[in-house]
Design brief:
Structural class: alpha/beta
Order of helices and strands: EEEHEHHEEEEEEEEHEHHEHHH
Number of domains: 1
Mean pLDDT: 95
Distance between the termini: 36 Å
CATH topology: Metallo-beta-lactamase, Chain A
Low-confidence stretches: 1-10
Helix content: 25-40%
Number of strands: 14
Strand content: 15-25%
Strand order of the largest sheet: 1-2-3-4-5-6
Oligomer: single chain
Radius of gyration: 19 Å
Shape: globular
Length: 280
């Protein structure tokens, strides 16, 4: 269960956590997690919308979590810290193997992240592919028992990240690691790429009825000004071609598209990722 923002901007109920996608730039989401008083921010590429939302809700920032080094995910860190320098600043968590300024806690896969206020416990998952040292944060259960994943640019609704620094093998292994989490996991992606991802997914798997229904639902959400996120892992396994690289119908479609046999799921993933990079 996710406590969403109420119409009057009131705080979540006692014991609940609120997961808020704050829009930034053209299509980024900066995620805030709050207990109604304190808040953690994930991948603040821009400080201004974060500060505005914190002020609107009267929340105090207590920690910053970073998934990878790209500027649209880390660009607001310095300004957030400068604003709080008189109070001693806040801890900044991020990947140990990437060059990111201002990190106070360097993390690798398997490391725990425990934050007192709000009360949050994450485990770190190494997910190289989009960048070499990309990490994700997995919360096994919120106060209502729902798991949550902050995956940066590794997994998107109906898509996955480009391979800027990693290999197809690495990205497929990273997606497999995320897909192994509970199906009920709420996936908090970092971009509103859903409609363009769906267009590609339908080219890859045109006879997927679940994908057709999701296309209509996602378009309705965007027309009404609502985000298509969070998604769930169960949903992604039904509609995301990059989590369906072993589906025979996808292999057949790829063979038609490229005129070459698909040897295995890794080859299917490699072909899909290359196709998506040029898809318009």
């Amino acid at each position: 269960m996710i406590a969403m923002e109420s119409l009057d901007g009131s705080s979540p109920a006692q014991g609940a956590l609120e997961y808020v996608p704050v829009p930034a730039f053209e299509d980024n989401y900066i995620w805030l997690v709050s207990d109604g008083r304190d808040a953690v921010v994930v991948d603040p590429g821009d400080a201004a919308p974060v500060e505005a939302y914190l002020a609107k809700r009267g929340w105090r920032l207590t920690a910053i979590l970073l998934t990878h080094h790209h500027q649209d995910h880390v660009g607001g860190v310095k300004a957030l810290l400068d604003r709080r320098s008189a109070e001693g600043g806040v801890p900044v968590y991020g990947p140990a193997s990437e060059r990111i300024e201002h990190l106070t806690q360097r993390l690798s896969g398997g490391d725990p992240v425990n934050i007192a206020h709000p009360a949050l416990a994450f485990s770190v998952i190494d997910v190289p592919g989009h960048t070499a040292g990309h990490i994700a944060y997995f919360q096994a259960a919120d106060p209502h028992g729902t798991p949550h994943l902050f995956c940066g640019d590794t997994l998107f609704a109906s898509g996955c990240g480009r391979l800027f620094e990693g290999t197809p093998q690495q990205m497929l292994a990273s997606l497999d690691a995320l897909a192994a989490l509970p199906d009920t996991t709420q996936v908090h992606c970092a971009h509103e790429y859903t409609l363009s991802n769906i267009r590609f997914a339908r080219a890859v798997e045109p006879d997927n009825d679940a994908l057709s229904r999701w296309d209509a639902a996602a378009q309705a959400l965007r027309v009404s000004g609502k985000p298509t996120l969070p998604t769930t892992l169960a949903h992604e396994k039904a509609v995301n071609p990059f989590l369906r690289a072993d589906v025979p119908a996808i292999h057949t479609r790829l063979e038609e598209q490229f005129g070459a046999p698909v040897a295995d799921r890794l080859e299917a993933f490699r072909m899909m990722r290359g196709w998506k990079d040029k898809f318009r």
